Amino acid sequence: MAWNEPGGGRDPWNNNGGGRRSGGNTPDVDEILKRLKARFGGRDGKGGKGFSGAVLLLLLAIVALWGASGFYMVNEREQAVVLRFGAYSRTEGPGLRWHVPWPFEREEKVNVTEVRESTDRSSMLTEDENIVELELKVQYRVTSAENYLFSVKDPDATLRQATRSAVRQIVGRNTFDFVVIEGRQAVADRARTLLQDILDGYETGLIVMQVNMIDARAPAQVQDAFLDAIKAREDQQRFKNEAESYSNERLPQARGTAARQVSQATGYRDSVVAEAEGDVARFTQLLTEYEKAPKVTRQRMYLDALEDVMSRTGKVLVDASEANPMLYLPLDQLMKNRSDATTDGKTTSSLPSTSSNSSSNDNRLRERERR
C-alpha cells in the first residue's frame, strides 16, 4: 500500500505515525528508499513536492557532471597550461589534473618532447654578388609551453622566418665558394647559433636542436657552367697533388745523389792531397840521400827502375855462345805473359802504388843526371 493512501500514520514526512523506529532516531534504510520512491512518484495533490525534488536532484547531477568535466589527463610528453578567463594561470605536469570547469578555466596541452622539423628553400645573395640556392632543415622542440602559447602568435612561422633571416645574414657575409663548397657545415653551425639568439629574443619557448644544410648550389640557369668550374678546380687540385708527389719523390733522390757526389769528390780530393803529400815527403827524403851520396843514389834509382820495368815485361833468355841459327821463340807464352802484364798494369794503375811513383821519380832524377 502506498504511503499517501487514506489511512493515518502512513505519511513519511509528518511526525505522527511509525516513521521512526520505536527505540531510536536513525531511520531504516528500506524505509528511506521507500520514502524517496514515494516522494518522486506521488499520485495525488502532493505531486508538486515530488517534482521539485526531482528538479533538485537533476540540478545536483548537472553540477556533479560539470565538476567532473574539470578532470583531465596529461601524458608524459606534454605540459598543460591552465587558463582562467583566458589568462595564464599555471602550468601542470604529467598526471591526472583538475581545474575549475568551463567557462572559468580551461587547459591547453603542448607536446614538449617531440622533435619538430622545419624546411626552408630560398635563393640568397653572397658577398661576391653571386646567387646561391639553399635548402635547410631545422630540428627544434618546445622548452616552455607558456612562452610557446602566449609570447608570439605563431611560433612555428616565426621560427621559419627567423631561419631565413639568420641564413641570409650569414650567406651575405661569405663568398659563393665558401657557402657551396668549403664551409657548408660552418654556415649551418653559425645559422643555428644566430637562430637561437633570435628565438630567445622573441621568447618563443623553442630550442634549436640542429640545423642541416641539405643542398647548396648555383641556380639552374648557370648550373652547367658551375659544374665546369668545379671540375676545373678539382683538376687543378689533382695536378697540384701530383706535382707535389713528384717533387717529394725526386727531391730526396736528388739530394741523395748530390750528397753522394760531394762525398766522392771529398774522398778523391783527400786521397789526391794525401798522395801528393806522400810524394813530396818521399822526394824530400830522396833528395836528402842524394845530396849525401849522389852516385850511390843514382845507381840505386837506376836499379829500382829496371826492376820495376823488368818485373812487368816478358823475358826470353838466349844462350849466345851456341851458334845455332834456329832460335825457337815461345810466342804464345810471350803473348800470354803480355796480356797478363797488361791486366796487371791496368789493375796497378787503378790503384795508387808507392813503388811506381818512386820509380817515376827515380827516372826523372836519372834523366837529369844524364843531362
TrEMBL record:
Composition bias type Gly residues, residue spans: 1-22
InterPro entries: Band7/mec-2_domain, Band_7, Band_7/SPFH_dom_sf, HflK, Membrane_HflK_N
Start-end of Low complexity biased regions: 347-362
Keyword Amino-acid biosynthesis found: no
Domain Band positions: 69-230
Membrane topology value: Single-pass membrane protein
UniProt-annotated stretches for the region Disordered: 1-28, 339-371
Keyword Transmembrane: yes
GO biological process, one term: proteolysis
Localization of this protein: Membrane
Regions that span the bilayer: 51-74
MF terms (GO), sorted A to Z: peptidase activity
Keywords: Hydrolase, Membrane, Protease, Transmembrane, Transmembrane helix
Family named by the database record: Belongs to the band 7/mec-2 family. HflK subfamily.
Quaternary structure and partners: HflC and HflK may interact to form a multimeric complex.
Function of the molecule: HflC and HflK could encode or regulate a protease.
NCBIfam families registered for this protein in UniProt: hflK
Protein name in UniProt: Protein HflK
Organism annotation: Banduia mediterranea
